[in-house]
Amino acid sequence: MSKILRIGLAGCGGQTRNQLAPGLARIPSARLVACADVDASRARQVADEFRIEEVYGDAGELARSGDVDAVIVAVPHRHLKSVALSVLEAGKHLFIEKPIGLNATEGAEVAEAARKRGVVAMVGYCMRYSLSRMFIKALLEGGAVGDVAFVVAGKGGGPLGGWLAAPYAEGGGQLLFLGSHLTDQVLWMTGDDAEAVSGSVRWNAGGTDETSAYTVRLRRGAVASFTVSQATGVSYDFVDVYGTKGRVRGDWYGDVVTVQSRVIPEYAHPTVLRIPGDNLREMCHREMTAFVEAALSAGPSPIPTSDGLRVLRILDAVVASSQSGNWVRM
Between β-strands 5-10 and 30-36, what pairing exists: parallel, antiparallel or unpaired? Predict the structure, then answer.
């Protein structure tokens, strides 16, 4: 098996240019060989910056290239499914940005295609590679807070622009953009899954979710409360976990973790820790390293498409609950 993974970039927007491609360029076992974008100037800019020889105007054509082993898909939400399916149809390893589709129906198509092809298909939940969030997960797994009783989490900021300001049905809004991240974070850190969902969504005049509050009853008995918004004057990103023996909170802005535990003596009183190194580029570098290693070894996906699908099912339930006023069982 080759020790070099030849990678194509499908989508040459800001996430690719500023985070993913720089992360890949630092990996000795990865080589950027092709890129594609419907905007020829954007594709050329990325090709020139990262010394990529093959440039395409169509992601499907890139995926079918014999010079490509794996494809990074970072396109607007409404195009994620179609581009991912073209990559999987070509039998290539797939890294697909969250949320993998507009809804659970699209997510299921991607997950099923990945299962049938047997390739490595990884979802881009880069917050799993945040040092502070990995530290929190390790504390929870070590029993620092005992049994989880409830979780409070929030993520958001000011008004979204560009295609993210499109109606929810077209892939815009904060639920799909940041709510997907936050929901995945809580499920991943607690190692739990959703049993039932209740939600309330405030929509703007353009049909985009502006502020959402939702509660997820987890299967092991804990309750998680979420807020995501594009109507606040400051950005925020926190996860606060309370248990029978303590509490741990992470604030991504500021690299701060606050711990209090009846299990760990040094955290007997509220203790504030700084966990540096959580900038987005470093997180994406760690994420890309995990994908490359998995693809080269044909090993299990670090973040399988089934994880992306379960988040979409919860977000669908948030919208359905807001419309009906009832809990939605998962």
Answer: parallel
Contact 282, 100 (CB under 8 A): no
Phi, then psi, of 172 in degrees rounded to 5: -90, 175
Work out the average pLDDT over 97-117.
98
The CATH number of the domain holding residue 111 is: 3.40.50.720
311 closest CA partner among 246, 224, 251, 253:
224
Mean pLDDT over residues 196-212, rounded? 97
The tokens describing 48, both together, are 């020139």
Residue 47 near residue 35, CB atoms below 8 Å: yes
The residue type of 117 is R
Instruction: Please tell me the distance from the alpha carbon of residue 189 to that of residue 283, in angstroms, as a whole number.
Output: 16
Same domain for 138 and 225? yes
Domain that holds residue 86: 5-127+283-302
CATH number at residue 174: 3.30.360.10
User: pTM of this prediction?
Assistant: 0.97
* Residues 275 and 292 grouped into a single domain: no
DSSP state of 215: E
**How many whole angstroms separate alpha carbon 328 and alpha carbon 215?**
11
Q: Are 54 and 31 in contact (CB under 8 A)?
A: no
CA-nearest of 202, 210, 199, 100 to 160 is 210
- Determine the Cα–Cα distance for residues 188 and 80; give it in Å rounded to an integer: 22
**Is the bond preceding 302 in cis, omega lying within 30 degrees of 0?**
no
What digits encode the pLDDT tens for the residues 272-322?
A: 999 988 899 999 999 999 999 999 999 899 999 999 999 999 999 999 999
